[in-house]
Write a structure and sequence with these properties.
The chain has 19 helices and 20 strands. It is of the alpha/beta class and 567 residues long.
């Protein structure tokens, strides 16, 4: 039997189907996972018959409005890819559905609501779950009723009324004691819910995760729950949907691994000309099907002369996050630079520059040894130590949506007892490593470092000229930031594949001043960036600012890097 999913994925990856970066990467992921079937550490397989069972169900349903009213629903290639992925991938031993979350971010007019209604009917009433509870949720119950009402109309138009009772408040099937209901964040109570299916409509409209978290928590008793999310791009990256979008991007980029999270984002790329039809086709997989080209031309013409309309066009029709902070460092370049098989012993006695970002004692603290290229090695090597408090590890892993516990088990992330990082661990590492490496200078952001600097100099014997402050300002960080950006782009930064460093690199967002100076800013970034800041401090030390301006620590023997020269 021909596998339509494999065919579609190959076509997208080969460039035969127009697609933006994260549409293409979803197909790359599918191809990679197909190649991983049966290998150690990958317990999943794709079962075409399981996907076909869903396709056979959808083919029994009929359109209820428009030019196709009364005709059987025929899924398009991208719909077969997305929905076939959700239902076709299973655990190899148990047969339980692999994906627990399906994040679908597409422009308007792609048939998202109708598609979600099909999923709602199938999972709630025909997937073999007794006592199934499906809920369509949104910020308001009226919005939640859009998908629910689509499901009701499908039941009526497709001759399913003898199997599914159409009631005012819900759909109900006596044979399986199952129900489908709409639920808004304005609902009085969510007590007693036990969903196996959640359909979140217009995810970008959710201002908080209150209802979403309640519903996801309530799925705990279900064997194979599914949270099916549909949305267009939003305008607030610091939002529940912005966080989910960022998480999806990191999975597709290979920065994070979550085998139970399916993601596809159909969009124009930021560098595309939004006024060109080829861009519209790239962002809209149903261009010429449910997306009328004449409508797109009219909207684009309006957008040319109205800034507000241009923003709306890019957001709703091209699925671009308006006002979103773009990632700074190239993840392709970062991956290119990574090599394995080396460790600290390979760098013994090499000159290095130590950057330390103390950040907050309740989050991550980072120290990175920066080793410049040598005659025998073209790349920079970054050797990190990253600490976090042990007692709050799991809470912060959940908050930051990062596998801190796994990284600790793997030795990539270190813990200190209690709820705060003890800065004395930094002293201990420096004392130990000064015999192994040729430490040229040690740099700090002066904001948090006063006590530690004194201890390094007075108690640990580091010379005053070895300990410098590097302010996290344009003057202190721009030259190093530009150098790091260029080295990453050229594939010349090597951390040995360190996963925490990769995650932090993907999180970093820079700000610019009027003179095109740049440096990463934590409050604008998409997650923790402390090891990247430490790396920049180390690189700033290597670039050697000419003269150091006095600062609060000068009387204690600590010098400060002022304006750095561009490298």
């Amino acid at each position: 039997m021909k596998n339509a999913l494999d065919t579609y994925a190959r076509a997208v990856v080969a460039g035969k189907v127009p697609a933006g970066k994260y549409h293409r990467l979803a197909c790359v992921r599918h191809e990679r996972d197909r190649a991983r079937e049966g290998t150690a550490g990958f317990p999943y397989r794709f079962v075409l018959e399981t996907a076909e069972r869903f396709f056979r169900f959808s083919a029994q349903l009929k359109h209820y409005k428009g030019q196709w009213a009364g005709q059987p629903i025929v899924l398009t290639p991208i719909q077969r890819f997305r929905l076939g992925s959700v239902f076709g991938w299973v655990h190899a031993k148990t047969g339980i559905r692999r994906f627990r979350t399906a994040y679908n971010e597409l422009p308007r007019k792609q048939g998202k609501s109708l598609e979600a209604a099909i999923v709602a009917l199938y999972v709630t009433f025909f997937d073999g779950e007794q006592g199934a509870e499906g809920y369509t949720i949104a910020t308001k119950r009226d919005q939640a009723k859009i998908v629910f009402n689509d499901a009701k109309k499908l039941v009526k138009s497709s001759g399913l009324k003898d199997r599914i009772a159409v009631l005012v408040a819900n759909l109900h099937r006596d044979a399986t004691t199952s129900k489908l209901e709409p639920l808004g964040a304005d609902h009085d109570s969510t007590d007693g819910l036990n969903p196996n299916l959640i359909i979140t409509d217009e995810f970008h409209a959710h201002k908080d995760r209150g209802l979403i978290d309640v519903m996801e928590t309530a799925t705990g008793a279900r064997l194979e729950p599914l949270h099916f999310q549909i949305t267009t791009a939003g305008d607030d990256p610091v939002s529940p949907c912005g966080d989910q979008h960022d998480y999806a991007c990191k999975i597709l980029d290979g920065v994070l691994a979550d085998e139970t999270f399916f993601a596809i984002i159909c969009h124009a790329d930021p560098e595309d000309d939004w006024q060109k039809e080829r861009t519209w086709k790239k962002a809209n997989p149903h261009y010429g099907i449910s997306v009328n080209p004449e409508d797109m031309r009219a909207l684009a013409t309006k957008a040319k002369s109205m800034p507000a309309a241009a923003a709306a066009f890019q957001q709703k029709r091209l699925n671009l996050w308006v006002n979103a902070n773009q990632p700074w460092l190239s993840m392709d370049g970062w991956r290119t630079g990574q090599t394995t098989g080396w460790d600290a012993a390979d760098l013994q006695h090499e000159p290095c520059y130590v950057g330390i970002d103390l950040a907050s004692q309740i989050d991550l603290c980072a120290m990175v040894f920066v080793f410049p290229p040598t005659p025998g090695r073209a790349s920079w090597r970054l050797l990190p130590w990253i600490w976090t408090p042990a007692d709050t590890l799991l809470d912060r892993a959940h908050r930051d949506r990062a596998p801190y516990d796994i990284w600790v088990d793997q030795g990539h992330l270190l813990t200190t007892p209690g709820t705060r990082v003890d800065h004395q661990v930094i002293r201990a590492v420096l004392r130990e490593q000064r015999e192994q490496f040729d430490i040229q200078t040690i740099g700090f952001d002066p904001w948090h470092a006063g006590t530690l600097i004194e201890q390094l100099q007075i108690d640990d014997g580091f010379a005053p000229e070895q300990v410098l402050s590097v302010p996290q300002t344009y003057a202190g960080m721009s030259a190093a930031s530009k150098r790091l950006e260029a080295e990453v782009l050229s594939g010349s930064i090597d951390t040995g594949g360190h996963p925490v460093m990769r995650w932090c690199a993907a999180n970093a967002v820079v700000q610019r001043d009027g003179k095109d100076n740049i440096y990463p800013v934590k409050k604008k970034s998409r997650g923790r960036i402390d090891p990247i800041m430490a790396s920049l401090i180390g690189m700033a030390l290597h670039l050697k600012a000419p003269i150091v301006a006095e600062n609060v620590y000068l009387t204690r023997g600590v010098r400060s890097i002022g304006a750095l020269v561009d490298a």
